[in-house]
Structures are given as structure tokens and as C-alpha cells.
Sequence to fold (218 residues):
Amino acid sequence: MPKEVIKKAIEKNFDYHESVDSEVWDTIQGGQQPKITLITCSDSRVSGHIFGKDMINHVFHIRNIGNQIENNFGSVDYGINHLHTPILLILGHTDCGAVKASQSDFSGESDEIKKELYPLYFNLRLVSKNTDMGSHADVTKLVQENVDLQVKDAIKRYTTEGQYVVGAIFDIHSQLGDKPGRVIITNINGETDIEELKEHPLLSDLESSMKSVVVNRV
Ligand SMILES: [Zn+2]
Fold:
């Protein structure tokens, strides 16, 4: 099994290499120029490719369980203060195992896992009462709350003019729209009112028909 896995990984990389325009490699040899600092959960269903297959050199991608900012401030600082990405996107996802685990008994986990779950536990414990962890709708409420709290922490730290902190949810289970796989914007710089979000200057170039789909909350 491990041999098959590594064989497939290397072969996929060969395929990927073939699929990319050779100019891309020339461009990125001079250094990276990402436009988005992206914090997502490590969940393998949340791929950077959800923003397109040509996102190489566009996304400075930081991952951990539960898309948390506080245990990765160093990496985020690098993306914002050194790479000057104007967008910090904090992207949760439906059915997040870390969010669910943080409100369950995780006493048997390793110290390292506990260390990463405790902040989620403390952040979400007051709103997780009566949550049915088997319900995608209930868990999505916690995921949204987690994204809101991560945005709140981020905007305390990253306050530069022209810097936006965007909260969103990768909707694998169609909890915020009628189709799975969409990135739904739930928060911009702490604003969570849906109508205000639709009118937000950051989204002014988006078609209103698209905004009505991609801006939502539970
Ligand atoms: Zn997750």
C-alpha cells in the first residue's frame, strides 16, 4: 500500500508537470508573488485547487487542523508583512473534524493534538451546547462561529490600510447553497450582515447574480 501511494504521487506530479505551461516555471524561479494568504483546515477535501488549477504562485497557503490563526501567526505575518498579500482568507469547511473533536472528549489524544484542539474548545464551548455533531447543519454553525472568531483575532493584528480579512466556508455539503464545492463568503473585516457584505466595496467587481450565491451565512 505505501509503495502504491508514493508511486501514484510521483506519477501524478509528472502529469502535473506536463500539464503546466513551461513559462510558469521560468516565472516562479524568480520568487513567489502570491496575492492571497490562505488559512485552511488540513482536511484533504480542502485543496488549494478550489481556486483554480493555475493557482501556483497566487496562494500562500497555511494549513492546520481547524483553520486556526493563533498557532500560525508567524506564517501569517510572513504572508502579510513580507509578501504583502492584500487578502487574508480564513476558510473553514463543512463537517470539520477538528471543530467536532474540539467539543467532544479528546482526552485520549496526544499532547500535540490536544494543544491544537484546546483553543477551539475554549472558543466554541459556549455556542456548542445542544449541537448535534451528526448534523451537518449544526456543525456548520460551529464552523461559521470558528471562522468569525479567527477573523476577529486577525483584524486585531492586521490593520493596514487596504488589507482585508475575509472569512469563508468551503461548502462541501451544500449547507449554504444548493451546490456542493462552493466557497461561501461569511465575513469581511468583521462584517457579518449578509446585505452589508453584498454591498462591501471588496466585492464591487462581482456580478450581483454571483454575489447572491457566494455571500451567505447559516
Ligand atoms: Zn477541518
